[in-house]
Amino acid sequence: MIHMKKNYEGNYDTDTEILYRGTEVSGIAENPETLPIYHSTAYCVKDTDDYTFANNGGKYFYNRTANPNRDCLGEAISYLENGEKTIICSSGMAAISTALLGLLKNGDHAVISKAIYGETIELIENMLSKYGIEITFADFTNEKEVEKSVKPNTVLFYTEIIANPLTLVVDIEKIASIAKKHNILTVVDSTFTTPFVIKPLDFGADIVIHSLTKYFGGHSDITGGSITSNESIIKRLMPSYLLLGCCMDPNTAWLTSRSIKTMAMRVRLQNSNAVKLAHALSLNPKIKTVFHPSIETHPQHEIAKRMFSDGFYGAMMSFRVEDDIKKVNEFMHRLKIVKYMGTLGGIRTTIAHPATAFRNEFSDEELKSMGMYEGLIRISTGAENADDLINDFNQALEVF
Ligand SMILES: Cc1ncc(COP(=O)(O)O)c(C=O)c1O
Questions:
Q1: The whole model's pTM is what?
Q2: Alpha carbon separation from 73 to 126, 250, 321, 362 (Å, rounded)
Q3: CATH fold group of domain 263-399
């Protein structure tokens, strides 16, 4: 037994003893192969000077302010994104809220991509408008439209790189150069792409956000978000992060750090499977269109080829079949390994039905204008054997 401290033995009543027994490690436990989980809400300070030192960021003090597991996870993400610092949040939406509420104030104008995650649109439309922030939605695949939307009070551009569900690709380099010309910050949600496909900061973006719930977590068992940028922007965002109180819990940070160790292998395999699957589906006569940037007829194929690394095009795609919801459901029932699920980026291939997902938020006409027809099915490609996946889709597609 090397770890038991006996400072309190026998001196106090049991009710007191039990609070102090078995709570400190006296043996040496240096350099464990995996980082311990620091669950502690707070850390003892010796006196008021020590408190002041801790409270000014000198050492760990209170979990919502800083935690070793979140800091280690942040360091790994900063490395992957070529950023200086990363804030780790309790969800992708928490990261987006922290960034937008931290950067925008009453009277500011922001230009936002039309083709972004539905709940980000809700946040912007329903919440930012309450604080006197002016918004213009624009098509970010059309740089002229984006530049025309700029006003004297524009301070921020916000976009994703591969937009859901039609996989439109934004030329982030061009968008960031327009932003720089007008002294505007570019915020990019790179959840669909991951740093193995593109590192937006290298292309001139100022801030990159991820829903860690997806490819970073990779196993559909965590919820988290990140904001990566330079030191001064992260410093600007810290008050909103601390005051909104949306920190990730240490256990989840530990799990996400563990997942990151296999992220390169997972995401590379998912991306190469996606190219194979998109090609195979494009040959299936039951399918009208496959939406994946690897397809040569995709409107931004050349942009994706130039910007993305290693011949990857992202592991998200969609395809359109007949707009017959009965057959769409029958197709789902017939799939043997692929599951229908409200997430993406997991190790197993999943599908989603965008028109059903957004029926409460948008009218039929709005859904169609965004390409969300009854016959549109989205795929998040997993790490299965590519032939098994292709066969599963092809046999289920026989229903059409
Ligand atoms: C592109 C994108 N950004 C942000 C989010 C929100 O992430 P979370 O569910 O972790 O809050 C999602 C969720 O699906 C997403 O797809």
A1: 0.96
A2: 32, 10, 41, 36
A3: Aspartate Aminotransferase, domain 1 (3.90.1150)
